[in-house]
Amino acid sequence: MLRLRDGAGPVTSADRSELAERLAFVVGGVNRRLRPPADSLTHIALSALATIDRRGAVRPGELARIEGVAAPGMTRLVADLESRGLVAREADPDDGRSHLVRLTEAGVAAVAAGRRDRAEGVAALLAEIAPEDLRTLEQAVTALESALLRTTPDPARAR
After folding, report:
1. 143 versus 97: which is more confidently predicted?
2. 8 Å CB contact between 122 and 26
3. Does residue 20 form part of some domain?
4. How far from 109 is each of 84, 85, 103, 116, 117, CA to CA, in Å?
5. How many domains in the chain?
6. Cα separation of 114 and 43, whole Å?
7. Average pLDDT of the chain?
8. How many CB atoms neighbour CB 74 within 10 A?
9. Which residues form the HTH marR-type domain (predicted)?
10. Is the separation of the CB atoms in 4 and 19 below 8 Å?
11. Which domain holds residue 24?
């Protein structure tokens, strides 16, 4: 059992490892619960759309790097999203050999629906948590958000 719960003694690397394992298990379980139905967009498709939504028009290779997938896989994904009318390709003004991928109105709506669906799924889980534990969870989420912001590379610097 973690000593973090009772505040006894310093936090050791073993404590951090145990907490990391538990957190990975919980995150995995939450992600499985939030998995979209089989006939809807996959997690990676929604993630790619959300990235385009945040960054604006992007080259497919840059999108692949951001999403952590191989370029051929992203090429297939972009083609699928384009066939569904969620993204459109446009000429890259900085490189005539390349193109940019941007969201269509349907793509913007898909991102909003995906975020709403995930938030509703998380809200259902939060409804099962006691109010005092929600306060603790809010502090943990704030700490994780800060860590993510500090450790996530800025894709704009990679250009």
Report:
1. 143
2. no
3. yes
4. 13, 11, 10, 10, 12
5. 2
6. 9
7. 88
8. 22
9. 16-146
10. yes
11. 1-33
Query: What are the residues facing 88 on neighbouring strands?
Result: 102
In the predicted model, is pLDDT for residue 7 greater than 80? no
H-type alpha helices, 9-101: 13-33, 43-55, 60-67, 71-83
Q: Report which residue type is found at 115.
A: R
Q: What would the pLDDT profile of 34-62 be if each residue is shown by its tens digit?
A: 887 767 888 899 999 999 999 999 999 99
Could you give the CA distance from residue 45 to residue 48 in angstroms, rounded to a whole number?
5
Tell me which of 108, 123, 154 is where a domain ends: 108
pTM given for the model: 0.75
Q: In 84-155, which ranges are continuous DSSP H helix? A: 105-126, 131-151
State the Cα–Cα distance between residues 109 and 92, nearest whole angstrom.
Answer: 24
- Expressed in angstroms, the distance from the first to the final Cα of the chain is 45
Q: Please indicate, yes or no, whether residues 18 and 68 belong to a single structural domain of this protein.
A: no
| 97-136 confidence digits (pLDDT tens) | 889 999 999 999 999 999 999 999 999 999 999 999 999 9
**What is the C-alpha to C-alpha distance for residues 71 and 60, in angstroms, rounded to an integer?**
8
